[in-house]
Write a structure and sequence with these properties.
- By secondary structure, this protein is mainly beta.
- 8% of the residues lie in helices and 30% in strands.
- A two-stranded antiparallel sheet has the order 1-2. Strands 3-4 form a two-stranded antiparallel sheet.
- Among the domains are: 73 residues, Tumor Necrosis Factor Receptor, subunit A, domain 2 (Ribbon), CATH 2.10.50.10; 62 residues, Tumor Necrosis Factor Receptor, subunit A, domain 2 (Ribbon); 64 residues, no CATH class.
- It holds the Pfam family Ephrin_rec_like.
C-alpha cells in the first residue's frame, strides 16, 4: 500500500510518502518484508510484526501456520502426530522416527523391518530373511544347518535333526535338504551320509570327507571317529587316495604299497606318477592321431600331405624324387658310356 502525507516543516510544506506492507496471516513483517512464521509459531491476523508461539510442548507441522489449531503435541521420537485424532501415535512395525515433533514416520530399508512398534532409530530394524542379529548388532547370514523364514523370529532356526543346508543364508526349511552327517561319516556325491572307510576317520559332524590315518596306519573297521582308532597295519593306498599316481594312471594296491600303470595310449615314467598322452603333439595340423592296439600312436594324413607327422607336402616330395632319379640315371649312363669307350682300342 502506498501512502503520502503533508507536513509543515519550518514553514515549508513537505510531502512524505510511505509503502505500507500488509502481511497476510501466517506471516510477519520484518524490514519491510513478509516472512513466514517458523515451525512452532503462527499468526491468525494480518499486518503482524511478530508471530505467536504455540503452547508448551506443542509445535506446527510446517512454516506459515495461521491458527492455534495447527499447533499439535510435540511427539517424542518413535511417534508421529495424527491430526485426525490429535494424538501422538507410535510408528508401525517397519517404520521408525529418530526426531521429535514429526507428522509421519520413516520407512525401513527395502527387505528389512523393525521388531516392534515405536522404533526410534534405523538400527532398530530386524534383519531380513536368512539373516540374524549378531552380538555386535550387525546382521549376519544364517549359518549352515539353519534358516530364518519369519521376520517375527529373532534368530535363525536349526534344521530338523540329521539335515543341513547347502549354504549359509537359507530362508526356508525346504532348503534343509543336505544330510547332516555324524562323526565317523561323510557326505558323498549323492548327498547321503556314508561311513568313513577303513584307514580313515572323522571327528566332526557335517563333513564332506574323512581324514586319512597316514601311511602304514589303518583302522579296524569303518566309521572311525578319532585318530586314536588308527593302528599299524596294511592299508589300501589306492582306495584311501594316498597314492601319487597321475590322473591318467591306474593305482594298483600291492602288499608292500602300490604301483601306478598309465592308461591305454599314455606313456609315463617308471613309477607312473607322470603319464603323457602318446597323441600329444604327435601329428601336424594336417594329420589326425590314432592308437595302435598296443597303445602307440600314428598319424593319418590329409590328401596332399605325407610323412610320419603329416608335415610334408606330397607333390614337392614326388618332384624331388623324380629329379633325383633322372640325375642319377644320367650320371650312371655317363659312367657306362665312359667304360664302353675305354674298351675299344685307339
Amino acid at each position: 500500500m502506498f501512502f503520502c502525507e503533508l507536513k509543515d516543516n519550518d514553514f515549508k510544506i513537505v510531502v512524505y510518502c510511505f509503502v505500507i506492507v500488509n502481511c497476510p496471516e501466517g506471516y510477519y513483517l520484518d524490514n519491510n518484508e513478509c516472512l513466514p512464521c517458523d515451525i512452532g509459531q503462527y499468526t491468525d491476523e494480518e499486518k503482524q510484526t511478530t508471530c505467536k508461539q504455540c503452547p508448551v510442548d506443542m509445535t506446527t507441522g510446517s512454516l506459515a501456520s495461521t491458527n492455534i489449531s495447527q499447533c499439535y503435541s510435540l511427539c517424542d521420537v518413535g511417534h508421529y502426530y495424527e491430526s485426525i485424532s490429535s494424538n501422538c501415535i507410535k510408528c508401525n512395525i517397519g517404520e521408525y522416527q529418530d526426531q521429535s515433533g514429526q507428522t509421519q514416520c520413516k520407512s525401513c530399508p527395502i527387505g528389512e523391518t523393525t521388531k516392534d512398534i515405536g522404533s526410534t532409530s534405523i538400527t532398530d530394524y530386524l534383519c531380513k530373511l536368512g539373516e540374524e542379529l549378531s552380538v555386535t548388532g550387525e546382521c549376519v547370514k544364517c549359518p549352515k544347518g539353519s534358516y530364518r523364514d519369519d521376520l517375527d523370529q529373532e534368530y535363525c532356526q536349526a534344521c530338523p535333526y540329521g539335515w543341513s543346508t547347502s549354504d549359509v543364508g537359507s530362508t526356508s526349511i525346504s532348503q534343509c535338504t543336505v544330510a547332516h552327517c555324524q562323526r565317523g561319516e561323510y557326505l558323498n556325491e549323492d548327498n547321503t551320509c556314508e561311513l568313513c572307510e577303513k584307514g580313515t576317520y572323522q571327528p566332526n559332524r557335517g563333513q564332506t570327507s574323512c581324514i586319512a590315518c597316514g601311511r602304514g596306519l589303518t583302522t579296524s573297521d569303518k566309521g572311525s571317529t578319532s585318530h586314536d582308532d588308527c593302528r599299524p597295519g596294511p592299508i589300501d593306498e589306492c582306495r584311501l587316495d594316498l597314492d601319487d599316481c597321475d590322473d591318467d594312471a591306474e593305482c594298483l594296491d600291492e602288499e608292500d604299497g602300490f604301483s601306478c600303470v598309465c592308461n591305454f595310449g599314455f606313456t609315463g615314467n617308471l613309477n607312473g606318477s607322470v603319464c603323457i598322452d602318446n597323441c600329444d603333439n604327435r601329428c601336424d595340423i594336417h594329420g589326425q592321431c590314432h592308437y595302435y592296439n598296443n597303445g602307440n600312436s600314428f598319424c593319418s594324413c590329409q590328401d596332399g600331405y605325407q610323412g610320419d607327422r603329416c608335415d610334408q607336402i606330397e607333390g614337392k616330395l614326388t618332384l624331388y624324387k623324380e629329379y633325383f632319379f633322372v640325375k642319377n640315371f644320367i650320371h650312371f649312363s655317363f659312367i657306362i658310356y665312359c667304360l664302353f669307350c675305354k674298351s675299344f682300342p685307339k
